[in-house]
Design brief:
The chain is of the alpha+beta class. It contains four helices and three strands; from the N terminus they run H-E-E-E-H-H-H. The chain binds zinc ion.
């Protein structure tokens, strides 16, 4: 088990030290800020969609911000998980990740959807530390707000 935990720690540190899709996007990309006052984490999501409704595709996503390794690495992994994906898949991965974090009922996850969380699996140990769950989901909640703002609500 410790071997797996070491691997997970390495994945988290790798995303923290070398964050993916870091930067900013110009309008008309939406810009949405998220803040976790418990830890001081800040995430800004820049989201560009191509198309409309559930057919829309995440054509580009960038993250800026600062905070602990869990918040920043989770946001980095999130960009990898959603870039180039249709909104329907983005919502499915959002639900699945939040279910893994215990903040959304597993019933909300469609057992038939074939979602591979990839590197995000490395964050499953966070669920043992309730105070860090808010760090892990910050980027995702900010993404959900960005989807709302872009007219592709994450809640329906
Ligand atoms: Zn944090």
């Amino acid at each position: 088990m410790s071997g797996l935990e070491d691997l997970y720690r390495e994945i988290i540190l790798d995303h923290y030290r070398t964050p993916r899709n870091r930067g900013e996007l110009d309008p008309p990309a939406t810009r949405t800020e998220g803040h976790n006052p418990l830890c001081g984490d800040e995430i800004t999501v820049y989201l560009a969609l191509e198309g409309t409704g559930d057919e829309a595709i995440v054509s580009d996503i960038k993250i800026s911000g600062q905070g602990c390794s869990i918040s920043q690495s989770s946001a980095s992994m999130m960009t990898q998980a959603v870039l180039g994906k249709p909104i329907g898949d983005v919502k499915a991965v959002l639900r699945r990740f939040k279910a893994m974090m215990g903040v959304e009922s597993a019933d909300a996850v469609d057992a038939d959807d074939d979602i591979d969380l990839g590197d995000l699996e490395a964050l499953q140990g966070v669920v043992k530390f309730p105070v860090r769950i808010k760090c892990a989901v910050l980027g995702w909640n900010t993404l959900a707000s960005a989807l709302d703002e872009a007219g592709a609500s994450a809640t329906d």
